[in-house]
Structures are given as C-alpha cells and as structure tokens.
Amino acid sequence: MLNMAHSSAAMTARFSQLPPLALYIHVPWCVKKCPYCDFNSHVHKGNLPIADYVDALKQDLDQDLEHVQGRKLSSIFFGGGTPSLMPATAVAEILDFARQSIGFEPDIEISLEANPGTTEYDSFSALAQAGVNRLSIGIQSFNDKQLQGLGRIHSSEEARRAVTNAQAAGFNNINLDLMYALPEQSLAEALDDLEQAMSLGCSHQSWYQLTIEPNTEFYSRPPRLPTEGRQWEIQEAGLALLETSGFERYEVSAFCRAGRPSRHNLNYWQFGDYLGIGAGAHAKISHFDRVLRFHKTRLPTDYLARKAGPTAKFVAQTHTIDEHNLLIDFMMNALRLRKGVASELLEQRTGIKPFTHSRIFSDLRERGLLKADPDILCCSDQGYNFLDSILQAFLED
Ligand SMILES: C[S@@+](CC[C@H](N)C(=O)[O-])C[C@H]1O[C@@H](n2cnc3c(N)ncnc32)[C@H](O)[C@@H]1O
Ligand code: SF4
Asked: Which one, out of 155, 198, 277, 377, has a CA that is 20 to 30 A from the CA of 319?
C-alpha cells in the first residue's frame, strides 16, 4: 500500500481553471457487517437516526461551501455502508439542499449504492423520483453458498430481483458489483457469476478481486482462497469473457458498455475535485494556489455529536498536498485508466510543469512500462500488469 502522508507545506500550484466538482455522501450503516469488509460501515442497534443524520449532512455541506468557488456539481454518489437503508424522502431532502446551495450541471449523474435485501420496487421508483439516475447494486456472487460464506443478507434470487425491479422502475444506468477469487472458487464458478451478471443487461460491471484486509473477520480467520495460479486463470478468462461480451475495460476493475462509464469515478481517476460529506468522507479540493485533502470525523456517533454544537466542525483533518505527493496521487489515479489521460492534464490538475519530472517519464517509457506517445500518460500493455511497480518508481523519485 502506498504511504499517503502529505506535507502541510504550502505549494505554488497555478491553475488557469478549476477541475469539475463532484460530491460524495457517505451512509455508514449496514444490516450486518460482512467478514471481508473494511469500509467505514457499522451495524446500528434499533432504528437508524435518519432525520438527525440528514440534518448533520446538510450542516456538513454548508460548512464546505467555501470550497465550491462558483462551480456546479457534475456528479453525486451516495456510498456506504448501505445508502439504500435511507428512505427516498431523505435522499430527496439532501439532493434538494445540494441543488439549492451549490447547483447541478444539466447532465449531472446521481448514483446510489443499493444492496439486495434492502430495496423493493417502490423504493427504486421513489429514488428515481428523488433524482437518482444511476444505481450500483452490490451482488458479489450469484452462488448461494458463496453468498452465505461472504456473510451477505441476500440470496442470488433476491439479487436478480433487485436488478429487475430497478430496471422496471426505469433505471437504465446500472452497475453490478461482483468479486472474484472467492474462497475455494473454481474457474467455472467465477465465469458463471460474470455470465449471470451480464445476462441481466446492465450497462456497467465492476469486477474486484477479493482482498483480505486487516481489521476484518477474514483477516483473523482467513478463508481458503484459490491458489495464485487459479487466481491468474480466473482473471485472464474473466477479462476475455467481459471483452467478448461487449464490456470495455476502462479501469482496472471497471467495465462498461459503449459510452456508459461511471462519471463520478472517472472524476476521481482524472484527478477532478470532490467534496465528501458524512462520517469519514474524504475530499480533495483545488484552490488557485494549492490543493487540499480533508476528511470528516469517522465514527457515526462522533459525527452526529458534532451536529449538536453550533460551532462544531465536521472536518477532522486538513492537509495541503505537496508537489511530490500531488504527482504520486495524480499518477496513481490516472494510470488506473486503460487509456490513461492526455499529458496536459497533469499541469491542468496539479500545476506541475511536465518538464520538472521528465526524467522519470522518459525512464518509464524506455523500460516499456508507459506508452511511448508523449501526448498521453498511459500504461503500456505490459505496464498495466505492473501498476504497483510503476507507482513505486514515482514514490522513490
Ligand atoms: C463500498 S463497497 C460496498 C457497497 C455495498 N454496501 C455492498 O456491500 O453491496 C463497494 C464494493 O467494494 C467491493 N469490496 C468490498 N470489500 C472488498 C474486498 N475486501 N475485496 C474486494 N472487493 C471488495 C464489493 O464488491 C462492494 O460491493
Ligand atoms: S454490506 Fe457492503 S459496506 Fe456493509 S459490511 Fe457488507 S460489504 Fe461492507
């Protein structure tokens, strides 16, 4: 994992134009904690304090308005945790507040993560009414035995029903999350998951290799994962299947049918700006002379407690990103994109002049890890398999 410590020294980045602005909204509760999950998600006993949380989110956004600097929102993402535990009325209230206080680009993308087992047809309809125009449905697998082992609260049948209900409610921009290299998974089982997902006719597929994260139940009691050889086999066959089925791999784990990438995630990878509200949410914001990262207080109870005090702030920590870390952060995001980015985006988004770091770029090009074309920053086919080594080179530069 990269060490993302940032210096607090101010830098002299110069932007002729600020990047597009997105908004992430974190909903930190789940019905049950999955044994592989290290996200900021918590089981809450009793009724969720939705009204209090919505009030806190609005207050939190209000405190961030100084960072908007005249921009409108190009995308919004409700992530979790399990945002589909929030009633659509609460989603509508937050969206209305964001529209009034910041404003929306006319073609704004508004996504919400929905878990099977927490949504019905009516709630999908109400979410569409509230303004949500994209769903990301967490399926993980269509194999009931795997779903049980992953601690999911839904069956494969409920997962399929969630997708067809969402489609019937009018959603035509839907992502499905699947994971692979699951405990004792065979190649045939992994491919069957992908085939079942694609048969549902959605526009976007996320396909993540299961990782065992510290502070999870799987870390303290590791399941039997497929061998490295089997993991490689699954990955190669899965990538081929996705491609022949018309899904373009536009990022390491993200695949889409023509013209339907996740605009919110593209903004992260293209080093756009984003505000983050809700427990533990992160933000990256450019000002004309510096780039800031900050995050909100992490635990839901602490976050809600901040709301009580009239002068209390939700921000837990703010850093100005120094030039070395700006370059690393930018490259770490941009090189995840299969087609990379235009070279000029580096200066546009970080203020760093390309010639300042020409040695590392020419070195990586000579080693065949970056494409030779100087107009793009993009991994070669070989380099894409060694992304970690490329990023290590930037860390050591
Ligand atoms: C924010 S998470 C959870 C979204 C939603 N609560 C759910 O569980 O469906 C988004 C996605 O990350 C993936 N994910 C979570 N933990 C993972 C892990 N340890 N390894 C690989 N993928 C993981 C899952 O596919 C999950 O749907
Ligand atoms: S439902 Fe999603 S966010 Fe919640 S614990 Fe499971 S994987 Fe994590």
From this structure: 377
Neighbours of 362 (CB within 10 A): 12
Query: What tens digit of pLDDT does each residue of 40-74 get?
Result: 999 988 999 999 999 999 999 999 999 999 999 99
Could you give the dihedral angle defined by the CA atoms of residues 160, 165, 171 and 176, in that order, rounded to the nearest 10 degrees? -20
Which of 27, 31, 39 to probe ligand 2 with, by most ligand atoms within 8 A of CB?
Answer: 39
Distance CA 53, CA 59 (A): 10
d(CA 110, CA 88): 13
Q: Tell me if the pTM is above 0.85.
A: yes
Q: Measured in angstroms, how far is the CA atom of residue 81 from the centroid of ligand 1?
A: 9
Identify which of 46, 18, 24, 43 has the alpha carbon closest to the alpha carbon of residue 33: 43
Which atom of ligand 2 lies at the shortest distance from residue 115's CA?
A: 1
Asked: is 21-267 a CATH 3.20.20.70 domain? The reply is yes
> In the chain, where are the structural domains located?
21-267, 339-397
Residue pair 58/94 in contact (Cβ under 8 Å)? The answer is: yes
Please name the residue that has the structure tokens 């533990």: 280
Give the number of whichever ligand sits closest to the CA of residue 207.
1
Do residues 69 and 289 touch, judged by C-beta distance below 8 A?
Answer: no
- Please report the atom of ligand 2 found closest to the CA of residue 153: 1
**162 CB burial (10 A radius; 0-12, 13-18, 19+):** buried
Model pLDDT for residues 117-143, shown as the tens digit of each residue: 888 778 999 999 999 999 999 999 999
Q: Measuring from atom 8 of ligand 2, which residue has the nearest CA?
A: 37
- Residue 33 Cα: closest atom of ligand 2: 5
Rounded to whole angstroms, the Cα distance separating 379 from 370 reads 4
